[in-house]
Amino acid sequence: MRIFIILFALVTLYSCKNNPVDDYKALSLLQYGMPVDVKAPEGAKVEAHDLGVMNDVVITSGDDYNVQIYASDANTIEVSKVLAEQKEQVKAGPFFSKILEEYEEGFIYEKKIDDTNLNYDFRYVKLMGDREYIYQTGLFGTFTEDQVRAMYESVQ
What we know:
- It is a single chain.
- The chain has one domain (20-155): Protein Transport Mog1p, Chain A (3-Layer(aba) Sandwich).
- It has helices at 2-15, 79-91, 145-155, and strands at 25-28, 37-40, 45-50, 54-61, 65-73, 96-103, 106-112, 118-128, 131-137.
- Strands 3-4-5-9-8-7-6 form a seven-stranded antiparallel β-sheet, with helices on both faces.
- The longest helix is centred in the N-terminal third of the chain and has 14 residues, at 2-15.
- By secondary structure, it is α+β, with helices and mostly antiparallel strands.
- It contains three helices and nine strands, in the order αβββββαββββα.
- The termini are far apart.
């Protein structure tokens, strides 16, 4: 009986674990040329670049939040097609290991750098009008699965 109570207490504590996204604040990217919102840690820094054929916005906060969004003209109105292209690109990468979870508009995946180093990333696709927005982790940094899950949740 005592073991049952201890296990119940541990499960309860674990399930009450604070989700970092609950503390994030809404952040409009309209002033950076993207009519989209994300949730980000308070005080997050935003950098925007016009790359000619696409726009790039990077949102960073500390070592555990780094979201990059690419916006370009859409070639289709079907999210599934853009998502399939993203999966192909990701799977062709040298460190791709496996897709952990798939959703209608995105996926979370694992990259195996070597036998001891795993990194995680995601793709999230949003189509609005004639524009497509591809969300992912920033190009710099390594992220745990939990950090990537929080970033993925923050862009939905």
